[in-house]
Write a structure and sequence with these properties.
single chain; 179 residues; alpha+beta; two-stranded antiparallel ribbon; 9 strands
Length: 179
């Protein structure tokens, strides 16, 4: 079990166990003046963690590879999922893992036929953040969910404050592995 039930203002909620979550927002802002001024930088933070590089390095790298503008969101699918496919940074090669089966209409625009399906189900079903973590306890990953990105490194979720509770059941739209 990677989660536990806690009492939150009189209501039982499910959260990741404490050792399986790191607040990437606080982490990035503790190490970078640029991060303190940024908004909409979840992709920067996710690659910072997955590639084990500084925030400032990740900021420059995402800006270059995804054409990200400062203080603006990173549109990971705008350039196609191959924007960083096969690139190496800090000794980690980036590999596109695939699309959620419900996003099959994206195959044409992205140029990818890879499917990211949870093997637990007979019918092709995608992962939630929680089920992805349970099925991939080892490795370095960047997960993209609706309007957001997180990193999972060796079973630990690096996300926004409180994402250990509110983000567990978000559908993973696509993922990269860094190894």
């Amino acid at each position: 079990m990677i989660t536990e039930k806690i009492n939150h203002f009189g209501k039982q909620i499910e959260v990741l166990k404490k050792d399986l979550f790191v607040d990437a927002l606080k982490l990035s802002r503790s190490q970078s003046k640029i991060a303190k001024k940024e908004d909409n930088d979840c992709v920067v933070r996710a690659f910072m963690v997955a590639l084990d590089i500084s925030y400032d390095q990740a900021h420059a790298w995402v800006k270059k590879n995804f054409k990200r503008e400062d203080k603006k969101p990173t549109y990971t699918s705008r350039l196609g999922f191959k924007a960083v496919e096969g690139k190496t940074k800090n000794g980690y090669q980036i590999k596109f893992m695939g699309l959620n089966p419900t996003k099959s209409n994206w195959k044409k625009t992205t140029g990818s036929n890879k499917t990211l399906a949870n093997p637990k189900y007979k019918k092709q079903t995608g992962y939630t953040v929680k089920s992805f973590m349970e099925n991939n306890p080892v490795g370095r990953f960047v997960l993209v969910v609706q309007g957001h990105a997180v990193a999972v490194v060796n079973g630990v979720l690096y996300g926004n404050t409180n994402e250990n509770a509110i983000g567990l059941y978000r559908s993973v739209w696509f993922a990269w592995e860094c190894k």
